[in-house]
Amino acid sequence: MIEAERKARVHDPEGVMRQLDARASGRSDVYRDTYYDDPAGTLEKEDRELRVRTVHGPDGTLSFLTYKGARVDEASGSKPEDETGVMDPDAVHAILRGLGYIPVIAFEKRCRNYKFDARGREMVATLVRVPEIEGTFIELETQTVEGDLLPALDDILAVLGELGISSADLTTELYTDAVRARRN
């Protein structure tokens, strides 16, 4: 599956949150993401990602192992994604290190997630704050297949427009890159 996604800066977070609250119930979670690569940085050089995410939410803690392939759409940064739940994140971290991967960056994201249907698609909107990065972002995504990617991205842009997000606010900058820049 491909995660069709657009990310944008949000200039009126409270206004966008009110609009999303009108569409669906929101859920606040704190993500702790750790990205791995081999010592040569092969995954990053090939535009791929390997991540362990632990989500702390009101109902408890869940963890996931995610692999993202290289971008299939440069304009949006959309990537094929495979993800699975993890019962013991400490064991997964140990396994990845045992296989020769090293943690290259870890950071926290404070998120408010909304799931809703729009334009015949199940969508997830996430308002994101990364304490190390200035501002609020919105990620709007849906799962699709390669032949449906461009129509899915068009639907995402339409919904973002309904939320008052303009094309000038779109970004493909990765949080990992922004956090690295901030730390340097």
Automatic annotation (TrEMBL):
Transmembrane segments: none annotated. It comes from the Bacteria. SUPFAM superfamilies: CYTH-like phosphatases. Pfam families: CYTH. Residues 1-181 form the CYTH domain. Residues 1-23 are annotated as: Disordered. This is Class IV adenylate cyclase.
